[in-house]
Design brief:
Pfam families: Fapy_DNA_glyco (PF01149), H2TH (PF06831). Keywords: DNA damage, DNA repair, DNA-binding, Endonuclease, Glycosidase, Hydrolase, Lyase, Multifunctional enzyme, Nuclease. This protein is 25% helix and 20% strand. The protein has helices spanning 4-14, 108-111, 125-133, 140-143, 155-164, 178-200, and strands at 22-26, 44-48, 51-55, 60-64, 70-73, 84-88, 93-97, 100-104, 224-228, 233-237.
Amino acid sequence: MPEGPSLVILKELAKPFEGRTIAEAHGNSSTVPYDELPGQPILSVRTWGKHFLIELPLFSLRVHFLMFGSYRIDERKDGATPRMSLAFEEGGELNFYTCSIKPVEGELDDAYEWQADVMADEWKPAAALKKLRAMPDTLVCDALLDQTVFSGVGNIIKNEVLFRIRVHPESTVGALPATKLRELVKEARQYSFQFLEWKKAYVLKQHWLAHTKRICPRCNIAFHKAHLGKTKRRTFWCERCQKRY
């Protein structure tokens, strides 16, 4: 599943389509009103966490790539039928595959809490801290994946953040000292931007310290691996240097 930084890359790649007018639209998504799309210009392309948003005059389109979604710009995926394909009067096309696409009525600013997006200029760490303090019994491995708190954070970021701040994934939010809770919030945003930088340079995996790794680089002992929390996502951690609170 693409995480927030990967969606920012898509937004940057799709930025040239702003102002272009849709000429043709088709696909196998049953939720997209294809007949209403031709003639509509793209007002903006935006992201909120793991949502890619195409703003149109009548409504917006929300693309969620789920676990295995993908996209192609100005080309098509061999042997695959797109969930949505958009061709433009000025040239070019956007194609989306194996994803969920839904219309969003009304203003995007009314539909989304931008301050919850770890990649957004509007991000507010104080708001994230307030939400965390209201969920004291939640495991930190689940809290980091809660999109109402850390929109855009996915499993890679979760594992890397917890390793970097030396917190065991089965710690509860309420048990964390105030300084450690603030560190969690700060690192979630900081690592997300590092993720973006490394992803653009095609070196992201080279910087992983915990995710998918077998040996702890600090302690030189085997990592533990399990599907933890309510989310049951793959988690990698060191029992020696990641403290359980």
